[in-house]
Amino acid sequence: MKICKTFIFLLLSFLSKAQETKVENIKDSTSIIIHKKTRPEAFMLWQVKSVSEFISRFNYQTYIDGKEMTDSIKNIFPRNHYLMKLFNEDDERLMNKKSKSNYPQNIRQFVESVCESESKISPKAAIQATLVLNGNYLGKATKLKMILEKTFNLKDSTVSWRIKHIQLPAEIVQKEVAKKTTTPDLKSDTLRTKYKGLYPNAQDVAFISLVQELNEAKRVLPLVSPQATITKEITQLENVLQSGDLTIQHASNITLKMLINSRYQIELQEFIREKENSGWLISNLIIH
Predict the structure, then answer these.
(1) Where does the secretion signal sit in this chain (predicted)?
(2) Mind listing the pLDDT tens digit for each residue in 207-242?
(3) What is the pLDDT of residues 133-188, one digit of tens each?
């Protein structure tokens, strides 16, 4: 009888320890799974997260995730291969093998030219931005197109965005024409001469500061480039902002243009997707 009780006790102890081990194993495996989920995905390392990061990669100065480009990395990724990774690989002109487009050949020639001449994009390079401003005009959704330029002032070493061109939707133009809008006397518009433009910040390519300025100041003229012609549409935009008929919500469809040399110009767009070839990439190559 004692032997039977002893056997049952040992059996229960064994089962208890086995259950504890199983629970511990489950906990261990759970912690491993959680750990894997918190680690960044591989594609995020290659993702070009900002325009400044694109420039440093194009200039062959940094590797993925902002790491410095070393000689050992350069041996693995020669500049011509590295530059190819900065093009949008999902471009139809590159994916369609039956396409008769010269775009693939143009890219190869461009990459060869950049590598041979060791071309780099200057931090002071002028950048042009084309975007769509989504807003609300008299209670209805509307969109207007805008072109801005990012310039470097040699006198005070400042960088700023200034408006170069505006294209208003037909509904705003027609109603403002009916009001017989007149162009203001710009000589008396002291705000335009005093204002330096929009100074870039961490979100400069999202143009958050542009949206805030248009809504809060209710003015556009102080943001217009001194070299730009004051068109009727710029004047009309000034009026609808001051009257409160138009409010801006956010910017979208942002395309940036950079001049590489006298022959080539590139266009950048942000591609948000879960793959290595993502972020700010070259969406088009323009040959002059």
Answers:
(1) 1-18
(2) 998 999 999 999 999 999 888 889 999 999 999 999
(3) 999 999 999 999 999 998 877 776 778 899 999 999 999 999 888 876 555 555 44
Name residue 256's beta-bridge partners: 129, 268
Rounded Cα distance between 236 and 175, Å, is 10
Instruction: State the Cα–Cα distance between residues 65 and 48, nearest whole angstrom.
Output: 8
Q: How far apart are CA 140 and CA 26, in angstroms?
A: 56
- The answer to whether the CB of 263 falls within 8 A of the CB of 287 is yes
Tokens of 85: 């990774």
3-state secondary structure of 59: coil
As a whole number of angstroms, the distance between CA 32 and CA 27 comes to 9
Q: Name residues whose C-beta falls within 8 Å of residue 13's C-beta, 6 or more positions apart in sequence.
A: none
Main-chain dihedrals φ then ψ at residue 218, nearest 5 degrees: 55, 40
Domain boundaries, the chain: 44-121, 127-257
The pTM (predicted TM-score) of the whole model is 0.79
Check if the beta carbon of residue 202 is closer than 8 Å to that of residue 137: no
